[in-house]
Amino acid sequence: MAAISREEVAHLARLSRLAVTEEELDRFAGQLDVILQSVARIGDVAADDIPPTSHSVPLTNVYRDDVPVPSLTQEEALSGAPDAYEGRFRVPQILAEED
Amino acid sequence: MSDLTKMSAAQLAKAIADKEASAVEVATAHLDRIDAVDERVHAFLHVDREGALAAAAKVDAGEVSGPLAGVPIAVKDVIATKGVPTTAASKILEGWRPPYDATLVERLRVAGTVMLGKTNMDEFAMGSSTEYSAYGPTNNPWDLGRIPGGSGGGSAAALAAYEAPLAIGTDTGGSIRQPGAVTGTVGAKPTYGGTSRYGLIAFSSSLDTPGPCARNVEDAALLHSVIAGHDPRDSTSIDQPVPDVIGAARLGAGGDLSGVKLGVVKEFAGDGSEPGVLSAFHESLEALVKLGAEIVEVSCPHFQYALPAYYLIAPSEASSNLARFDGVRYGLRTGDDGSRSLEEVMSLTREAGFGPEVKRRIILGTYALSSGYYDAYYGQAQKVRTLITRDFEAAWQKADVLVSPTTPFVAFPFGSRTSDPYQMYLADLFTIPTNLYGGPAISVPCGLSEGLPVGFQVMAPTMADDRMYRVAAALESAVGTLTPPTLEASA
Question: What is the ipTM of this complex?
Answer without folding.
Answer: 0.94
